[in-house]
Amino acid sequence: MRLRKLLALFLTFSLLLGCTSNPAKPSSASPSAEPSAESSLPAAPGMNGKAVGFLFVGGTDDFGYNQAIYQSTVAVDNAFPDLNIIRKENIPESAESEKAMEDMIKSGARIVFATSSGYTKFAANVAKRHPEVIFYVQGGDQTLPNMGTFAFSFWKEMYLMGYAAGKQSKSGKTGFVVAFPSSRLLLQVNAFTVGLRAAQPKATAKVVFINNWCDPVKQADAATNLIDEGIDVITQVQNCTKTIHQIAEKQGIKTIGYQVDGSNIAPKSWLTGLVFDRSKLFIDMVKTAQEGRFTGSRYDGSLILQNDTEKVIQMASFGQSVPDELKHLMSRQLSDIQSGKLKPLVGPIKDQAGAVRIAAGASPTEEELNKTNYFVEGVIGEIPK
Question: What pTM did the predictor assign?
Answer without folding.
Answer: 0.86
